[in-house]
Amino acid sequence: MTQSPRRKSIGSQRNPETIAAVRAAAEAVLEQKGLAGFTIEAVAKEARAGKPTIYRGWGGRAGLLLDIYQSRKPADLHPDTGSVRSDIAAFLVNLMDSWEGTSAGPIFRSIVVEAQQTAASRNALDGYFVEVIAETEAMLSRGAASGEICKDANLPQAAEMLLSITVQRLLSGRSLGVKDAGLMADMILSGIAPQTNGSSS
Amino acid sequence: MTQSPRRKSIGSQRNPETIAAVRAAAEAVLEQKGLAGFTIEAVAKEARAGKPTIYRGWGGRAGLLLDIYQSRKPADLHPDTGSVRSDIAAFLVNLMDSWEGTSAGPIFRSIVVEAQQTAASRNALDGYFVEVIAETEAMLSRGAASGEICKDANLPQAAEMLLSITVQRLLSGRSLGVKDAGLMADMILSGIAPQTNGSSS
C-alpha cells in the first residue's frame, strides 16, 4: 500500500489546535448552511482563522470537504469475507450504499464538482482515489495470497476499475445493487475472453 | 444496440428550424462567452426563442451542452482494427484524446458538473453514457462474433467498465496513455483470476 507521489503531505505545516478548530468550523458551517453555503470564507470566519490558513492546510474547498467526507465514510468499506469475489462485491455495495444512504454522497458529488474548477481540488479528488485504490488493492492482495487471484495480476488497475464504475454510477444517478456487484466481481476475476489453459495474453 | 428506456425522445416536439436556431445560438454563445457565460437565458436570447422551448427540447443546460458535445466528438471513437484487444485499447485512447485535446473535454466536465445539480441534467449525462456503452457494446460484439470474446459475456457491463475508467481519469486529472489502455484491454479480456480450463464462474 504505497502512497502516490501526487498526494501532498500537509500535516507538518499544521498545528493540531488549528486543525481541530477548522474541522469543527467546517462541520458547523456544513450543518448550518448546507453545501451551497459551504465556502472557505464562511469556514474561516467560523473558525476565527485566516483564509490562507485553510488554503495552506487543505488546498481549498474540495480538500476541506474531503476531510469531512473521510470522517463520515464507514470505516469498513472493505470487509474480509473469506472469498475475494464476495469481498469485491461487498466493497462495491458498501461504497454505493455509503454514497446513496448518507450525507457522504452529496459531499462527494460536491468534491467532484469542485475538482472540475481548480487544479488543487482536482488533486484532492485524485488523492482520495489513490487512497481508495490502495485500500482496495490491499483487499485484492488477500485473494492473491489465497490463490484466487493471479500472483502477477495488476491489482492497482483492477482496484481502479472497481472504483471507477461506482463513481460513474453515482454521478449519472444509477444505483448499483447486489446483483450488479456480483457480475462486476465475476468480470474482474474472469474477464470476457474464452478461458484458455494457462495462457493469459 | 438497444436504446435504454431512460433515454427520452424529444424530437417529435421540436421543429427543425427551431432546433437549428437554438443549436447555432448555443454554439455562438459558447464561442463568445465560454462555458461560464453559457446559460439558458443567453442561448434563448441569441436564438430569439423562449427559455421554455429550450427546457422542453433539451431538458436544460446539460442537454444543450451535450448537443454541442456530440457535434464535436470524433466520429470514429470505435475503430475496427481486426483485433478486439486493439479495438478496446484504441477506444480508450481515442476517448481520452478527444477529451484532453479538444474543447470536448471542458464541455464534458461541465456536463458532469451540471448533472450534480438537477435530475434533468443527470438524465442527460446518463443518456450519453447509455449511448457510448451501446456503441462500445457493438464493438465488443465483433469480438464475440470472431471468438475473441465469450458468446455469453455480459458486454454492456464490460463496455460500462471501459467507459467508467476514462470518466474517472478525466475528472481526477489523470491521463490514460497507450500502455494503460493496453493493460486495461488485457484485464477486461482475461480477468485477474488464475485461468482454469473451461470453467468461468
Automatic annotation (TrEMBL), chains A, B:
Query: What positions does the DNA-binding region cover?
Result: 39-58
Q: Does the keyword Transcription regulation apply?
A: yes
Highest taxon of the source?
Bacteria
Q: What InterPro entries does the database record attribute to this sequence?
A: Homeodomain-like_sf, HTH-type_TetR-like_transc_reg, HTH_TetR, Tet_transcr_reg_TetR-rel_C_sf, TetR_C
Database matches in Pfam families: TetR_C_11, TetR_N
Q: Which UniProt keywords apply?
A: DNA-binding, Transcription, Transcription regulation
**Gene3D superfamilies linked:** Homeodomain-like (1.10.10.60), Tetracycline Repressor, domain 2 (1.10.357.10)
**Name under which the protein is recorded:** TetR/AcrR family transcriptional regulator
